[in-house]
Write a structure and sequence with these properties.
The complex is a heterodimer. By secondary structure, chain A is of the alpha/beta class. Chain A has helices spanning about 5-15, 20-35, 35-55, 70-75, 90-95, 125-135, 145-160, 185-195; strands at about 55, 65, 80-85, 100-105, 140, 165-170. Chain A folds into two domains: about 5-55, Orthogonal Bundle (Helicase, Ruva Protein, domain 3), CATH 1.10.8.420; about 65-195, Dna Topoisomerase Vi A Subunit, Chain: A, domain 2. In chain A, the strands form two sheets. In chain A, strands 4-3-5-6 form a four-stranded parallel sheet. A two-stranded antiparallel ribbon of chain A has the order 1-2. In chain A, helix 1 (about 5-15) crosses helix 2 (about 20-35). Chain B has eleven helices and 15 strands. Chain B has helices at about 35-50, 125, 130-145, 145-170, 175-220, 245-255, 260-265, 285-290, 290-315, 330-340, 360; strands spanning about 1-10, 15-20, 25-30, 65-75, 80-90, 95, 100, 115-120, 225-230, 275-280, 285, 320-325, 345-350, 365-370, 375-380. A six-stranded antiparallel sheet of chain B has the order 2-1-4-5-6-7, with helices on one face. Classes of the chains: A alpha/beta, B alpha/beta. The interface of A and B includes residues 111, 119 and 151 of A.
């Protein structure tokens, strides 16, 4: 038996979401059908509202309901330090540590020619503008250690270093709280390379 | 090391197969295209993670099934290991070692189990294209070094990205300066990881050469001398030195000199992905001059050398997989192979005709018969 048309459409839409396969999409669709109208409206409205209200911060390109965003306008933030990340989710990961007090710049991806993403597709010009205008102390490159992340870091370092600011990258090392013997060879090799003196 | 048990589920045409191996010799008998080689392929994947016969994981899964499973019990010189590998149509694998799920199914598989595969197709190694010889090096180095595996994966990704960039530069008419700027970020990683790959490959080729030379010398009663040389465009002006920093510098020069050609052809032309192994016999290029018999002797020497390399580097006797090779080897070469195998080595042999095998091989052997993916045990009958 085939699904009736509105149900099929719902399943298809769910299936477009990341990490959702045909089975999960079907489960979600039936779940929605079994809810009362009020609950379904809440869900639908929250999707619409999020989409309508959340925009990109014109300064750091992070997503927020306000423009400029809460971090950019906060007086407790040190705006002489910029942390460059690829996506808003990376920003959130760093925020969760409660350790970082500077501001951010979200690139919107990583350089990847195979996906048609070159420097012009990312917010690199805006970053360059910010760095040359403001009196910065440090630019922290907090990007993935993947091939694309490395390439983007090399590119940024290349175009930012003529401006004479301090540029750093996140350290490689052992995951916190792990036993050495369980770390893989490459991680240990990198951690050895990036070893530091005990203060 | 020994493969004590193998269970296959939906692996290629084999829907179900389970067998305990209490013998050192396992003979898999069957007509062509019944599934003999599939068993050896599954065993080989446990050591090398990828298969020479499959481009994509999908090809390894029985038609219309969601996944294939390889379960195995392995005995090493000082341990017992249970490996379960699930290969999914989604392309994502799942790996459990001793019942514990592993996060990196490709990398974590490596280093637990070692094989030497000798298939009839390996005869093309000498006359075939350079890509075959690179594949041969890569699959052997992968099982010997997890770091090689990681470097190689990163290197390949950077090459793919560089090729995409060169192609888009050609199509979009990107300025030369902008292209050079963007190329440099990929070249830097290509040089970084490529140099490590080069170093390990040259080292491996040298080891294999020294062992294989001895084997070929013995086989030919001193009449044939084998030489293997790693060939890379990078060393065309300056000779190879085993120093990673020097290799990086030479690599960089070589890439810079090839800029115009790379741009014109739209692909990366310098690096380990374009290299080759030159095989020479009595100072002549084997590719052009080796006779059919000499080719067989060379391959046999190389395979015995591979085996010895695992023994020395890993302190384990690998499992030998002989896929349909006895029909290609005459009696004297068969004898040479058998007499040069280390003691206690476990050997899996596939053949269409049991008469192709030496009598010695059948002694205490387990014989399995494969027909359309179904496998039955067969008692060794006398009177061959």
């Amino acid at each position: 038996m085939k699904y009736t048309k509105p149900l099929l459409k719902l399943i298809e839409e769910f299936q477009k979401l990341p990490g959702v396969g045909p089975k999960s999409a079907q489960r979600m669709a039936f779940y929605v059908l079994n809810q009362d109208m009020e609950q379904v409206e809440k869900l639908a409205n929250s999707i619409l509202e999020a989409k309508k209200l959340i925009k990109k911060c014109s300064s750091c390109h992070n997503i927020s309901a306000n423009d400029p965003c809460e971090i950019c306008v906060s007086s407790s933030r040190d705006n002489k330090t910029i942390c460059v990340v690829s996506e808003p989710k990376d920003l959130i990961a760093i925020e969760r540590t409660n350790e970082y007090k500077g501001v951010y710049h979200v690139l919107g991806g990583l350089i990847s020619p195979i996906d048609g993403i070159g420097p012009d597709e990312l917010s690199i010009k805006e970053l360059l503008g910010k760095v040359s205008k403001n009196n910065l102390n440090e630019i922290i490159l907090a990007l993935d250690t993947s091939t694309e992340g490395e390439a983007t870091m090399l590119y940024l370092n290349r175009i930012l270093s003529p401006l004479g600011k301090k540029i750093t990258r996140l350290g490689f090392g052992l995951p916190a709280g792990t036993e050495l013997e369980y770390a893989d060879e490459l991680t240990i090799a990198r951690a050895l390379e990036g070893r530091s003196e005990i203060k | 090391m020994l493969l004590k048990r193998l269970k296959l589920t939906n692996f290629r045409n084999i829907e179900h197969f389970e067998e305990d191996f209490n013998t050192l010799k396992i003979i898999i008998l069957g007509q062509n295209a019944q599934g003999k080689s599939n068993i050896l392929e599954a065993v080989n994947i446990l050591a090398k993670s990828s298969s020479d016969r499959a481009l994509r994981d999908n090809e390894l899964i029985n038609f219309n099934k969601e996944f294939a499973l390889i379960n195995s019990d392995i005995k090493t010189s000082d341990d017992d290991i249970e490996i379960s590998l699930q290969i999914n149509t989604t392309g994502r694998r799942k790996l459990k070692i001793n019942g514990v799920s592993k996060k990196a199914p490709q990398a974590d598989l490596i280093g637990n189990f070692f094989t030497v595969m000798f298939a009839a197709d390996d005869l093309y190694l000498i006359k075939g294209s350079p890509s075959l010889r690179r594949k041969w090096l890569d699959s052997n180095l992968t099982q010997l070094s997890k770091i090689y595996h990681n470097h190689f994966a990163t290197y390949q990704k950077s090459i793919t990205q560089k090729n995409a960039l060169l192609k888009s530069a050609f199509e979009s008419g990107m300025s030369r300066k902008s292209l050079q700027e963007q190329l440099s970020i990929w070249n830097k990683q290509i040089i970084e990881y490529g140099a490590e790959i080069l170093l390990q490959r040259v080292d491996y080729v040298n080891k294999i050469e020294s062992f294989a030379k001895q084997f070929l010398n013995d086989m030919s009663s001193g009449n044939e001398t084998l030489q293997l040389n790693y060939f890379s465009k990078i060393f065309s002006d300056t000779p190879y030195v085993p120093d990673v920093e020097k290799i990086k510098a030479m690599f960089e020069d070589s890439i810079n000199n090839s800029f115009d050609e790379e741009l014109a052809r739209g692909q990366a032309l310098v690096g380990p992905h374009r290299d080759d192994v030159l095989i020479q016999i009595n100072d002549k290029e084997a590719r052009a001059f080796a006779s059919q018999g000499q080719q067989r002797s060379i391959i046999l020497s190389l395979k015995l050398a591979e085996l010895k390399a695992v023994e020395i580097l890993k302190n384990e006797v690998p499992v030998l997989l002989l896929d349909d090779v006895f029909a290609e080897l005459d009696e004297s070469r068969q004898n040479f192979l058998l007499h040069n195998l280390p003691e206690g080595i476990q050997t899996f042999i596939t053949t269409t005709h049991i008469s192709d095998l030496q009598h010695d091989l059948l002694e205490n052997a387990l014989v399995l018969k494969v027909e359309k993916g179904k496998i039955v045990k067969k008692p060794v009958t006398s009177g061959f």
